[in-house]
Amino acid sequence: MQNVSTVFHYFPSLSERQQQQFSALASLYAEWNEKINVISRKDIENIYINHVLHSLGIARVVSFNKGAEIMDVGTGGGFPGIPLSILFPETQFYLVDSIGKKITVVKEVAAALELKNVFAEQIRAEQVKRKFDFIVSRAVTRMKEFYGWTHKNIKPKSIHSLDNGILYLKGGDLDEEMRELKMPYSEYLLSDYFKEDFFETKKVIYVPVH
Question: Is the pTM of this model over 0.85?
């Protein structure tokens, strides 16, 4: 099992509480994965790079403000929402997934870590009525479809250096997929921020929504 030191290396100014919370993730997910398989058995060994650090790639693109509201769509076991909620304790995170057992894991992990800024719910993205500063996700579908589900949920007024919009973790060649969207977007290479081989083809796709 990887240890948490890689996260501490890239985020050296974490508080003691944040360090404790990140340190607890591996055993929490290993324990829950035995009951409800939310991370592949092989991947649980690489949780700090493949899941935690990957999720925190979004924090290299924008630093969420106090009081901001973020929705994580198709959160699965809580990625990227749980790592981001640890990093930004004064930002509110709403984690949604259509699969109830995954939301069970998210709620239990958030409770164990005493994350007061996480609310998790079993619901489809299309059914969500509330509005958010940003919507985050890890490659749940093609971007055109994802944009169709979620663009209605973006607040019109921005309070960050980036305009409100979608921050999407994806990998590989996305040119064809992004051409389908017919919208302006920016691509951030995670290999510019993290040196591990896992990040070689990983990106954050940012789509502003006005």
Answer: yes
Q: Tell me whether residue 45 is exposed, middle or buried, using C-beta atoms within 10 angstroms of its C-beta: 0 to 12, 13 to 18, 19 or more.
A: middle
Residue-averaged pLDDT of the chain: 95
Q: Is 202 left (phi over 0), alpha (psi -120 to 50) or beta?
A: beta
Distances in whole angstroms, Cα of residue 101 to Cα of each of 93, 122, 136: 19, 9, 20
Quick one: CA torsion of 193, 171, 180, 124, rounded to 10 degrees?
A: -100
Q: How far does CA 207 lie from the centroid of its chain? A: 15
The position carrying tokens 């796709």 is 205
Are the CB atoms for 81 and 72 separated by under 8 Å? yes
Q: What is the pLDDT of residue 42?
A: 75
Contacts of 116 (CB under 8 A, 6+ apart): none
Residue 121 backbone phi and psi in degrees, to 5: -150, 140
The DSSP secondary-structure symbol of 59 reads: G
| Topology of the domain comprising 5-208 | Rossmann fold (3.40.50)
For the CA atoms of 60, 138, 100, 7, the dihedral, rounded to the nearest 10 degrees, stands at -40
Q: What is residue 50's DSSP assignment? A: I
Tell me the two tokens of residue 74: 């198709």
Return the closest-CA partner of residue 117 out of 150, 156, 81, 153.
81
The model's pLDDT over 30-39, given as tens digits with 9 standing for 90+, comes to: 999 888 878 8
